[in-house]
Amino acid sequence: MDLTAVRTRGTQFSHPALPSWLLAAGEKRYLKGRGLVVNFNSQALRLNNSQDTQLAAFSSQIRCNEFITPALNCLLFELPEALIAGRNIAWERQERYPGTRYDGIWADKVDFFRSLQDEIAALSLSPQRLTVNSDAVYDSQDFSLRANLWFADAGTHCGIHNEHSFIELHTQILGIGRMQTFKNEARSSLCEDLILAPEIGRAH
Questions:
Q1: Distance from C-alpha of 80 to C-alpha of 127, rounded to nearest angstrom
Q2: Which residues pair with 78 in a beta bridge?
Q3: This prediction's pTM
Q4: What is the pLDDT of residues 79-102, one digit of tens each?
Q5: Whole-number Cα distances in Å, 69 to 6, 11, 123, 193
Q6: Domains and CATH numbers, the chain
Q7: How far is CA 13 from CA 47, 65, 80, 81, 162, in A?
Q8: Which of 45, 56, 75, 201 is most buried, most CB within 10 Å of its CB?
């Protein structure tokens, strides 16, 4: 993908309940209300706003009522002041994974929802830049960066897992979540417990 040819466009998962955009570098845009800007690049992103804000690599920040002219391509989510009844996001499909919900009773099939996926960038970087948990050294690799939304009802707990065939970057858009690290598949092996809220991201 030629990143220099990217034009501002709506994402494949944009919806009136949660509009989202892939913003092209150098394009000026006014953020009316609250907007979550996501820097998916491996370098800091200068917004060129009145406060000369910079977003660290693989991070996000809520900006309000201002013009931005991002120096690099980025994602923008227009955050609603309040969720509107009846404006449900059209999820591509419903996924079922092991986990628990509400009462803590374990189930093999707990509902999660996933939106359409959108290929938004091609990045070249060393995987170790995405984690602080490994001393391994890797050569630079090419990655196809794809974005999508996940949703789970309040009170949902995903089953413990420690393997991925890809690298994940998590950004909380709405609500509060938690990301936990375990030494093995036993709940008693919990060694890290992070609170995720809008503006707080995590890679694994």
A1: 34
A2: 35
A3: 0.81
A4: 988 765 545 666 666 677 777 666
A5: 15, 19, 21, 35
A6: 3-79 (2.60.120.10)
A7: 24, 24, 16, 19, 27
A8: 45
